[in-house]
Amino acid sequence: MTSNDIIQLEQQYVLGVYSRPSFVIERGEGSTLYDTEGNAYLDCVAGIAVNALGYNDAGVNQALSEAAATGVFHVSNLYHTAPHARLAQLLCEESFADKVHYCNSGAEANEGAFKFARRYAREQGHADKNDILAFTGAFHGRTMGSLAATPRPKYQDPFAPLMPGVRFAEFNNLTDARAQMDDGVCAIIVEPVQGEGGIYPATPEFLRGLRELADEHDALLIYDEVQCGVGRTGKLWGYETIGGDVGATMTPDILTAAKPLAGGLPMGAILMTQRVADAMHKGDHGSTFAGGPLVAHVAHHVVGRIADPAFLATVRAKGVRLKEMLEEINSPHILAVRGEGLLVGVELDIEAAPIINRAYGEGLILVNAGANVLRFVPPLVITDDELAHAVQIVAKILSSS
After folding, report:
1. CA nearest to 360, candidates 19, 56, 55, 49
2. What is d(CA 278, CA 275) in angstroms, rounded to the nearest whole number?
3. In a domain, 63, yes or no
4. Measured in whole angstroms, how far is the alpha carbon of residue 37 from the centre of its chain?
């Protein structure tokens, strides 16, 4: 089939909720994707911060082969399997968490976190303590609960009414958060680095203040690290990048993770402290496919690789260099460059979409984070030379825009 055949077939049979460019991806190697016509594209999207180890990675392929050789891809959560137990141990040992619950996506992880928070409040004897405090600019998912905590009319309005009981305060504004907070709030959810909202890191003072507010009102602090977690910022967990040496003062009760966990296979996880786990009982929550042996075995390899301090140091170094190169672009269209590690946004005074579309013709894949922010979320294994090449292409396009 030609690329046109494939696109026409998709348009005939696949629900048209996505806008896609006019090429068909066929294979990948490292940080480069190739289409059916043989054209190469340097990928600075990585499946939207998913393919942390790039494409055709030998270690991921080996882990996948090992899991497939058992012949058991799925048994459901009615039974014990070794891979999901080993992965949970690794995630707990590499985080604040005492327990892990698996799911299949970031939205599912956030939905589960909301349920756990409401269950925790009821276990403490507070049946009417069920509100969630979220923040402007947030993106927590497109399911009904996570969408209710994503304050964007474009996403919310067609599906109203949404889950009730969500309040909003201004991101990075602790005074506003305090004004919205009372004993009716069971959880605060926040992204340590906002992704879809434009690549805005939280301040240390903001996260520490939220931790104090949660403690003051016996609410749970939830970090949505679906995009900024698992090495993306140069630390294993995004809030560690924000907190530095004082990270312990902003430790969450629950952390949601997903995108890069299993190297491109669908997996989400809810990490939690023991006090949260103690509030949940058998039958309170579940998922047919979550934590299956094949996906969990691959995820163990991915998390183990990324958690290596030497690997994370390379991510931090590449992130610093990327921001430096972007800041050196001499373009009046660039208003700001911000982010942590390899989660970087370039705010423009023009819309990002035309830049992205022109970049395809230059062999570069980019994505936006809002109407006027170019987002760089490449594979964490991208090389310095590849980053430099990506920046050169962006600079070239901006010079003629």
Report:
1. 19
2. 5
3. no
4. 31
Please report where in the chains the tokens 């939830």 appear, as a residue.
222
Q: Cβ distance 211 to 222 under 8 Å? A: no
Q: Helix, strand, coil: what percent of the chain each, to 5?
A: 40, 20, 40
CA within 13 Å, CB half, 260: 32
Mean pLDDT of 189-199: 97
Q: Which two tokens stand for residue 339?
A: 């982010």
Strand pairing category for 99-103 and 40-43: unpaired
Residue 273 CB: number of other CB atoms within 10 A? 17
DSSP tag of 342: T
- The structure tokens 């979220």 sit at 134
Cα radius of gyration (the chain)? 21
Pairing outcome for strands 99-103 and 268-272: antiparallel
Same structural domain for residues 111 and 238?
yes
CA-to-CA distance for 344 and 401, rounded, in angstroms?
A: 21
* Pair (25, 78) in one structural domain: no
Q: What is the pLDDT of residue 43?
A: 98
320 and 303 fall within a common domain:
no
pLDDT at 55 over 60: yes
Is the sign of the CA dihedral 232, 237, 243, 244 positive or negative? negative
CA 181 to chain centre: 26
What is the extent of the structural domain holding 345? 3-57+313-399
Domain count, the chain: 2
Q: Strands 343-348 and 268-272, how do they pair? A: unpaired
What's residue 401's pLDDT? Answer: 86
Is 25 domain-assigned? yes
Compute the average pLDDT of residues 277-293: 96
On whether residue 231 sits in a domain, the answer given is yes
pLDDT of residue 249: 83
User: Where do runs of H (alpha helix) occur along 153-193?
Assistant: 153-156, 174-180
- pLDDT tens-digit profile of 215-234? 999 999 999 999 999 999 99
> Mean pLDDT over residues 327-356, rounded?
98
Identify the domain boundary among 253, 286, 307: 307
> What is the CATH number for 40?
3.90.1150.10
Residues 263 and 320 in one domain: no
Task: Give the mean model confidence (pLDDT) for residues 120-149.
Answer: 97
Quick one: pLDDT band at residue 310, thresholds 50, 70, 90? very high
Q: Check: pTM over 0.90? Answer yes or no.
A: yes
Name the domain boundary from 260, 283, 307.
307
